[in-house]
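Example record

The entry below shows one chain as it appears in the dataset: sequence first, then structure tokens.
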Amino acid sequence: MSLVFNIQRMVRNGIAGVSAPVLASVAALSPAIIDGKRLNPQLQTFAALQGRLFPMHRFQLRQARSLYRFAMKSFAVASRPMALVEELSIPGELGPIRARLFVPPGLTGPMPLTVYFHGGGFVLGDIDGYDSTCRHIAARARCAVLSVDYRLAPEHPMPAAVIDAGAVWRWLLDSAADLRVDPARMAVAGDSAGGLLSAMVCLMARDAGIQAPCHQLLIYPATDGRMNTRSAELYGRGFILEKQLTDWFRALAAGGLTDEEMARVMPIHADRFDDLPSATVVVAGFDPLYDEGVAYAGELREAGVRVELQDHPDMLHGFLTFTGSIPRARYALDQAAGSLRRALWVGHTLPRGRSRPRTMLLPESA
């Protein structure tokens, strides 16, 4: 049975339906067990196939973006019907920002809302690729979701993405009533690079003295960027987010910024972590970013922030991509959405600060 045929079969039927012998024949793998953790075998096969066939950093940028979008659409959770899907253009300091609003059936205003920032190393990803994921979060968390197409590098290197994220939050504070959104129940969420943007919105809002999100959902977030942790060393090869790929992301996203300048847009380097919204931090056991996600959760908790750490020892970075094909990945997404739902419907509190800021600028530390 050919390798190409098996890949097509995985796309068509989902890898969860492929038998263990077929998985073994596709990748010829022995179980990945590190520090007593065993990687989900289906994810292990995906990681091996990507490393052999689709090393993103070796493709032309346009091809890499197309492949990333294809993977999200092929393997991510199935699309859910929405009561409303609306394309929006949000004004920003760097120009208009494309966004897509999802409202699930049965939700009436004033409704809770989550701003979602996609992953992709600030180089890949878009709202089209994350369409079904955002629909699923909207349905499971019972909230509207505003998915943001922030500017990507290398066309727009850092801190362009952070500036866009701040502009979206400022616009949302001014536009909540028009969107039929409850301003006291607005959260931020994101995966990987999007987790960094979500954390930065919370830090910037606090430092600017304006209303902050009521909750932050950070899914395997990038919080440091130095890639000098033990998990970065352990899982930097063979587990999707390889060192060559993170080096590629960093080179394109930095756009000439020094390490010191890049550190200013990394949440872990904030001057303080108190007075921030409650957080759900999701980490994957076989992720180079595992240690920095755990470390950021620790900084928040030590500063008195209410934190829920959801640790999935058998997952790897990017498991959201496979939520339609792998039940364990779907479970992790549903657990994260459940925490978001509780924060928006049960445990929300009025955010601090003014409700209608005149402006929102990057703090001096960013």
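Notes for this example: DSSP finds twelve helices and ten strands in the chain. Residues 11 and 27 are 16 Å apart (CA to CA).
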